[in-house]
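CORE FACILITY INTAKE
Project code: CF-77B
Contact: R.S. (postdoc)
Sample description: multi-component assembly, three entities in total
Requested service: structural model of the whole complex
Turnaround: standard
Below are the sequence entries exactly as provided by the requester. Do not edit them.
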Amino acid sequence: MDVVTQTRATKQQRKSLGQRLYKFYNSQTFVAILFLIVPVGLLIILKIYPIFYNLYLSFTRYELFEPPKYVGLKNYRYVFENSVTRQSIWNTLLFTIEAVPLGAALALIVAKLLDENFYGKIMYRTLYYLPVISSIVVSAMIFRWIFNPQQGLLNYFIGLIGIPPQTWLSDPNLALPSLVMVTIWGSIGGNMIIFLAGLQDIPGEVLEAAKVDGANALQRFTHITIPLLRPVILFVVVTFTISTFRNFGLIFMLTQGGPLNRTNTLVWEVYMSVFGNLRLGRGAALSMVMLVMVFILTLLSFRVLRERQG
Amino acid sequence: MKKPINRRQFLKRTAVGALGFTTVGIIRSPFQTQFYSLAQGEAVDLTLMMVDYSDPVKTALEDVIIPMFVEENPGSSVTVNYSDWARYNEEMTTAFAAGVTPDVFQGGAVWSPQMAKRGWAYDLTEHIKADTEWNWADFPAGLQADVTVNGEIVGVPYRQDLRTLWYRKDTLEAAGFSAPPSNWDEFLEVAKATTVKNGDQFEVEGYHFSETSAGWQRDWQAYLIWLEQAGGQFLSDDLSKCMLDQEPALKALQFIHDLIHVHKVTSYPGLEPQGDIPVIVAGDAAMQFGNADIERNITLYAPNQADLVFPTLPLTGTMQATHSWVNKFFVSSQSKTPERAWDLLRFLTRTDILEIYSATNNNTPPRQSLLEAPYMSEKHREVLAAAPYAQTYPQHPNLIGLFRPVAEELERALTGTKDPEKALQDATKQVNIILEDG
Amino acid sequence: MAVQMSKENRLVRHLPKILTYLVLSIGAFVMVLPFIWMVLTSLKIDSEIFGDSLKWLPGQLDFKNYRDAFVQTNMARLFANTIFVTVISVASQVILGAMAGYAFARLQFKGKNILFFSLLATMMVPFEVLIIPVFLFVRGFPLAGGNDVFGHGGTGLFNTYAGLIFPNLISVFSIFLFRQFYLRFPHEIEEAAIVDGCSRAGVFWRILLPNSKPVIATMALFAFLWSWNDFLWPLVVVKKDALKTLQLGLSLFNQEQGTQWAELMAASTIAVVPVIILYLTLQGFLTKGAVTSGID
């Protein structure tokens, strides 16, 4: 019960129409409706309704110029039976498995090193953050040049240690790892900032106490910092996983799903089904598979990072 | 000492600057490619999408061709947008799905039957038949047939993309060959003799395999020419069956597979061009298939190579053959003013305008009257000499869909991950499934 | 410390710090090298780029590549479009997020928790998954682009700024961030204002919002990055050059130019430098915001 409004109401027994209107206008429910109608309306249009509509479309054959036709599970059967789409599911998983643990670990290490007070700290933080603000398109353009088989910087460097030049993006075995490399490079800065915020919330006394008890730096990090940081690690792993699932720009810019479909991920397959072949039903089924995979991986992250706690 | 700006001031100034910049930019961009006529009359804004262009074409379009159209058609304005072959399919599909296609747009070799089937191309038959001055008869019968689907003329050719063998005279001479090869055996001999390698790295490819600009169709387009020289074809004449499991198809694929993996005279997917300079012009390859763009790029970017790189007739495998990709303009069925769009298309393919465009881009023109045009150099005539041997695509409405599995299987065979015979069998199977599906 | 340390001891004591510097510097070098290489390449001429051996420094200071890239990409237009779209998206995400965050944090109403958590769950749903329905919705937007009330007959918001901005108007993350912040905001100030006769809406606009600067800064940074880097949606929704955003324009330039490395790198440099300058100017403010708002 709201005390303030009550006292105001008893003070003024007889209320004019205007006052009553004002009271209605100022009631919590009305203000809530007023404040929520636009944001919630937009979210219903942009997020909630699309999920259900997508689910519906995934059971239809829809090529846009004729109304959707119900086909049952045909699209899903196609997704799981066709070798290309099956490979795209596998590629998506592989991309996530290769990028997320390593990328998150590197970001955590950098954040830990930057958590101390020392000269030039802000400069380092800025340098690590540069790839984040430079955008995926620009990063991809730069790396397309770095990966160039003939004049590329990367081949120059591996040449210095005696490795023969590689064709990176057109080599079926190296294409996906190359994309992972760019992704990790581009994500360290963003994840580092989140880890830094988390590290600063860890009370200094706990670490001091452990130091007094004779724990060395590594022990303090693994036994105190990491467990206390678990919610932040969870947050980073989940958001990073979702962002690798969404990684359309890099694939568009660098490999277009090739070579040999090795970088053909679900998001690329959705794009090609819908905007390349006008198979909206199939695209919707692929999207739903992608959505389920995101949920499973998120739940899995929760499980893994929770259990360590007990 | 000058007082440094504090953050608040900086922010304020940046914000004001950005706002002003944005407003000016959105209201009137200095580079906007729009041309208005001052004449009275109903204002019609037409949009034109160009895919086949080079920098000089952009200039010619914006400075000469479009202003001329606007002058001749008072009240019209034309907005030009530019696209790229590598994303053409997705771009046009999305545009049609959303209903925001350009009024007039360019399309590649596969698109006549596809546009006709989807109902995306405006039927031009009446307009063309009624217009004797513009002269449809000037286009060769083969090109007319390419844009005629079920008796309807759905587009107008603007270019024959005729590819033939180009070679480096200096490289061949240094290896002891005074003339370019004319058949597969000679070709292999020359390619072996001209290849220069440093360890596993190619310095000069005896044969440069692929053009990078074709996107995922790269391998398919490179293979197609060999397929046709081997006497093979992609689909049966009644379009009901894929013919890639036949002997000639395998012979062609085995041959180029061996170029990469046995004779090692070409790298896969090939060395890259040096900026605008094609691989063969940069001296990184001795031979490659290509169209008259090679000559254009020599003229524009490497004039010192003009006396070193030449075209010759296509090779003979089982037969002497090459492929011609017929590019055309379409009027969109979604155009709100199809009559005016036709006016624009008619204008663009009129002899005088087509000559400006073709000359600027060094296109092989589709009009017979232009084959003798002043810009047609000796080299270009040599390219044109390949025309009698050229084959065009079969008229199937879903060629893009059919090419995809083939391109994937070709990639497998050419990377050496799948046996060529197996790859072709698998490709045939997949294509046949799509053909049956309709 | 009273006891004078020996030289060796001092080295041992400083070793972790030296190692930290070393590791961080190597890492930072890897992070920055691509940008340095970008700028160096952008100043080179083709013969330097395609020479037999790798050449680090350009032989001259020639800005021709910049001029070409600027004109060919129509960079002024790309920037103008992107700034316009980004400013509106950021403002909308911040204001709508703050309003909803306030309602969820400070107001009591029926079904609040169910509503909030069902919205929160959509945070897990990547936009790419929903692109088909959103595409269809934008195409069938009622009474826009020649559509009738039921969204038939026209092109909806396609090829318009509104279509470009529409999916970026709101983010669940913003609602979440503001809610967390307002949950911890002291109640006394709000109550005092209400006693003084200020309406609830007034409390939000006059007291809470002006005191939310750190969250606003954090959210603005995120929204800026999302909107500025948005790529798939513009690729789908924009089919004319005049509306192209920076990322879209650059990606297409990348495709069209193929191996024109000097021009491509010049275009990248032009695109990235203003953002870096903006970030450097604001970074103290932004990181303070990110830390105090705490993503928990």
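Facility notes:
- Chain B is about 45% helix and 15% strand.
- The mean pLDDT of chain B is 89.
Invoice: internal transfer
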